[in-house]
Amino acid sequence: MTVPFDPTAWTAMLLGLTALFAGIGALRKPGAWRTMLEEVENSPALQFLCGLMELVIGAVVYLANPWVPSDLISCVMKAMGGLMMVEALAILGFVDIYSQFWLRSLTHMHRGWAMSTVVLGLVLTVLGALRLA
Fold this sequence. Notes:
Elements: H1 7-28, H2 32-42, H3 44-64, H4 72-132
Helix pairs in contact: 1-4, 2-3, 2-4, 3-4
């Protein structure tokens, strides 16, 4: 018997692992996210690449997940893909304003953002893995 491909499980698991390890990295090196944001803010090339990459990844996540109200994970993943696309457009068009919001937020709540990223990553990874099992 062939198991059907489940894009929702894979996107949840892969985005979850990405968030989990990004959060762990931020906890290990507390100034890393702030440095990344400053570098993106100071480089038009990085602004374009970051915006474009997030737009593409967000579009893939959005398009791969159906909106099925009875399937909460697929709806969450579709919403995340849509939010990623909106954020990408904000980066492409308004990086100076958008990055200042995050720089101020990271100054005061770095550990909180890192921990919430770890928790979100862990939840998505577990939900995706359970769905694949």
